[in-house]
Amino acid sequence: MKITIVKMKTKLNQLHFLSLLLLAYMPVLTIAQEQPTYLVGGTVHVGNGQVLSDAHLLMMDGKIVELSNRFDNQIKNANIIDVKGKHLYPGIIALNNIMGLNEIDAVRATRDYNEVGAFNPNVRSAIAYNTDSKILPTALFNGIVYTQAVPQGGQISGTSSLFYTKAWNWEDALVLEDDGVHLNYPDLSSANDANDRTSHSQKQLEAMMNFLHDAFQFCNVQNQTVFNLRFEAMRKVFVGKTNLYVHVNTAKGMLSALAVIKDKYPAVKLVFVGAEEAYQITNSLRLYQIPVVLTAIHRLPLHSFEAYDLPYQLASILQDSGIQVAIAQAGSWESRNVMFNAGTAVAFGMDKENALSCITLQAAKILSIDHRIGSLEKGKEATIVVSEGDILDMKSSKITAVYIRGEQVEINDVQQALNKKYRQKFKLKE
Fold first, then answer.
1. Distance from CA of residue 174 to its chain's centroid?
2. Buried b (16+ CB within 10 A) or exposed e, 94-112
């Protein structure tokens, strides 16, 4: 009996060694462009406000190498695709959501976005992102190519990263690792909460200030003898290498954040997320050059005295006031509708190309990667969405192709599969 067990252990060890050897030599499965591709004759929405009609876009080695009205027929082995009558857009960027971190709301085991504890800047969405999520293909089907997976809960939730919505694993999906830390600012909307030192909000504010102070001191100590993972995760924030996303809705909370964080730690790059009362403090936001990420366009006004359509106009109001704005949609599956939030802003006064920029170039600028993505310009990543209609209009938008780094990817999802299945079963016509 002992001899049998020894032999089994030996075989298992051999199999383990062989599996590791195979993994070591296995090629990394990434999306890579195999041949030059010419998209000819389409209307190109650059993302920076420009629109080019009857334009020709050449993709090579995953980059945009030419965008003009002149067709170059000297490119060897080019895959020429006629997109006349169609619209070309930059890949949509969905900021501030939990796609890839959440699958089924009612099943705790599929929710991987909320950790225990109040201060968790060391929690990273990068290693938790699930590329096998059934939600991600539905987002890609709408033209969302990039998603910012954001941890939730506590006072400091964790560190977000930017991913592709289609990839083999989280390493391949990673576009920008650890782009910023997310802080949930205490609700100071009540005058009593702001003045009463014993209130829950005031206690949260003091705890947050103490944590930031201690973390700042830790990051400025030379030759540290004790390592603190939570404090260490704040190091890049304090020197302005990554963003500090402050989730706050009230004007009072935003002004408090400027005083408590920005004035004390000037190098910190603040981004206000939510910011439903941002229209009340446009001068301060412009003075401090604070970008704003609006996460709820389709909502009721915050106060009874506000106009019913204020949430729809807010992006336009802030942009007209000289404030950098991005449009997002919080949540998981509902985040796939972010482009229609931008469309609502258009219906209530915003220029259509400016609204597109709020979910492409402006989002990329907030992430500090606008030199790589966010617009269809020479030298940038060839990640392109082709649509038969207006991508911001729910009624006319019909995505026909998506290119990630120059390579066309499949955009079918489980909903299309079910549609096809039951049309065949009941013999329904298309």
1. 11
2. bbbbbbbbbbeeeeeeebb
Place of tokens 């401090």: 288
Which structure tokens are listed for 238? 């304090």
Q: Sorting pLDDT into bands at 50, 70 and 90, what band is 26?
A: very low
Give me the pLDDT at residue 23, please: 41
**Inter-axis angle of helices 338-347 and 310-320, to 10 degrees?**
80
CATH number attached to the domain at 92-373: 3.20.20.140
CATH 2.60.120.280 fits 26-90+375-430, yes or no: no
pLDDT digits (tens, 9 = 90+) for 167-215: 999 999 999 999 999 999 998 876 555 556 568 899 999 999 999 999 9
Q: Indicate the pTM of the whole model.
A: 0.89
Query: CA-CA distance, 396 to 85, in Å (whole number)?
Result: 13
What mean pLDDT comes out for the span 321-350? 96
CATH 3.20.20.140 segments of the chain: 92-373
Question: Hey, is 343 helix, strand or coil?
Answer: helix
Cα–Cα distance, 322 to 325 (Å, whole number): 9
